[in-house]
């Protein structure tokens, strides 16, 4: 099999370029040639249009999130179905789709039977335990596919997966009631989406960041969201939604929640952190979260997109080719921009 680097010789048509985590740490990531996937029964091959870089990818790079090696990274996938493995699925061919992340779950445990495959102990997801979307093509179960509604931007669908995760945290069960004062900490892509979903629920939303987040906060302000770089006032918010994955922001959010209010953890810390957790007791806070997504939260995400309740195009602030993945990952780790997407076509 040929392993010629693109641009340096003929490419084997049976291979494709992909970003592979093959060893420990960020140095254990490389762009390599991989065999193109073939759909089996009940599966589809998706030609990848774009895959978003997520904070989880940064955590995987630093071995702070469970994964196997070697594995093609990437789980926020937008693409077009080019092949299926079963004749009854032929109507999917040519469809523009977003992709659920779970390649498999046991389907027998209590969580799976309750529709919560995200909590299955044997769940295996694309981008961590099965090959993901930082590649030219991806193989997934047809069960994972969601046809995208019409959107203003060609890459809006790449935000479907993070939107489904936000929906899992805020809509199942509903967290924000009309008129609630809502603080969202962390103006990255997840924070921007959480702020928009909270507003769609009727919340009066403030998105908080650091002075270094000025460009990100400017995007939110253009979308009509309230923003601040000041420390949030104590006990001023009915609901606080922590999206930064940073301990100081989480501590500030706990202090900002009113007595009897709600605290929602969306961001991933990636390590043990120290928090003023006695505030949960003293203020009788309701603490909730949501791990990844469920079929119900995906349906909610598709409804939000179809209704125009979330604005996605401005959140895609950078696109690069597969060969420039390292540069893009470093930029994501530094917090530059909002959503950087890998576009296999360059």
Task: Describe the SSE topology.
Layout lengths: L14 E7 L7 E7 L7 E10 L2 H7 L9 E2 L3 E9 L11 E4 L2 E3 L5 H4 L10 E2 L11 E5 L3 E3 L12 H11 L10 E5 L3 H12 L3 E5 L5 H9 L3 E3 L8 E6 L4 H10 E9 L12 H5 L3 E4 L5 H13 L8 E5 L4 H9 L5 E4 L4
Parallel strand pairs: 11-12, 11-14, 12-13, 14-15, 15-16, 17-18
Antiparallel strand pairs: 1-2, 1-4, 3-5, 3-9, 3-18, 5-6, 6-10, 7-8
Helix pairs in contact: 3-4, 3-8
Would you write up a description of this structure?
Keywords: Metal-binding, Oxidoreductase, Zinc. This is Alcohol dehydrogenase catalytic domain-containing protein. InterPro entries: ADH-like_C, ADH-like_N, ER, GroES-like_sf, NAD(P)-bd_dom_sf, Zn_alcohol_dh. Its cofactor is Zn(2+). The chain is α/β, with parallel strands linked by helices and 346 residues long. The protein has helices at residues 55-61, 110-113, 160-170, 189-200, 214-222, 247-256, 278-282, 295-307, 325-333; strands spanning 15-21, 29-35, 43-52, 71-72, 76-84, 96-99, 102-104, 124-125, 137-141, 145-147, 181-185, 204-208, 226-228, 237-242, 257-265, 286-289, 316-320, 339-342. The protein contains 9 helices and 18 strands. Strands 3, 5, 6, 9, 10, 17 and 18 form a 7-stranded mixed sheet that branches. A 6-stranded parallel sheet has the order 13-12-11-14-15-16. It has a 3-stranded antiparallel sheet with strand order 2-1-4, with no helix packed on it. Strand 12 (204-208), helix 5 (214-222) and strand 13 (226-228) form a beta-alpha-beta unit. It is globular, with a radius of gyration of 20 Å.
């Amino acid at each position: 099999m040929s392993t010629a680097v693109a641009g340096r010789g003929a490419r084997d048509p049976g291979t494709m370029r992909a970003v592979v985590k093959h060893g420990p740490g960020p140095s254990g990531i490389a762009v390599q040639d991989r065999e193109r996937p073939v759909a089996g029964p009940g599966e589809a091959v998706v030609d990848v249009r774009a895959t978003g870089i997520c904070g989880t990818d940064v955590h995987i790079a630093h071995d702070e999130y469970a994964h196997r090696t070697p594995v093609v990274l990437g789980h926020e996938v937008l693409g077009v179905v080019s092949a299926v493995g079963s004749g009854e699925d032929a109507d999917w061919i040519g469809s523009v789709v977003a992709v659920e992340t779970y390649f498999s779950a046991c389907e027998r445990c209590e969580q799976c039977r309750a529709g919560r495959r995200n909590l299955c102990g044997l769940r295996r997801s694309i981008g961590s335990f099965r090959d993901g979307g930082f590649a030219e093509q991806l193989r997934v179960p047809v069960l994972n596919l969601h046809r995208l509604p019409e959107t203003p931007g060609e890459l809006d669908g790449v935000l479907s997966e993070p939107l489904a995760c936000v929906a899992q945290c805020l809509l199942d069960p509903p967290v924000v009631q009309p008129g609630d004062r809502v603080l969202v900490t962390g103006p990255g892509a997840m924070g921007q989406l959480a702020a928009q979903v909270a507003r769609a629920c009727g919340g009066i939303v403030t998105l908080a960041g650091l002075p270094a987040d000025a460009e990100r906060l400017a995007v939110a302000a253009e979308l009509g969201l309230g923003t601040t770089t000041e420390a949030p006032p104590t006990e001023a918010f009915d609901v606080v939604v922590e999206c930064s994955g940073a301990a100081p922001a989480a501590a500030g959010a706990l202090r900002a929640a009113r007595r009897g209010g709600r605290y929602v953890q969306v961001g991933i810390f990636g390590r043990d952190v120290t928090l003023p957790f006695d505030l949960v007791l003293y203020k009788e806070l309701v603490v909730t979260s949501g791990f990844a997504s469920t079929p119900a939260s995906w349906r909610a995400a598709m409804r939000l997109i179809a209704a125009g309740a979330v604005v996605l195009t401005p959140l895609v602030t950078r696109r690069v080719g597969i060969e420039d993945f390292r540069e893009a990952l470093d930029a994501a780790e530094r917090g530059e921009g909002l959503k950087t997407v890998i576009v296999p076509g360059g």
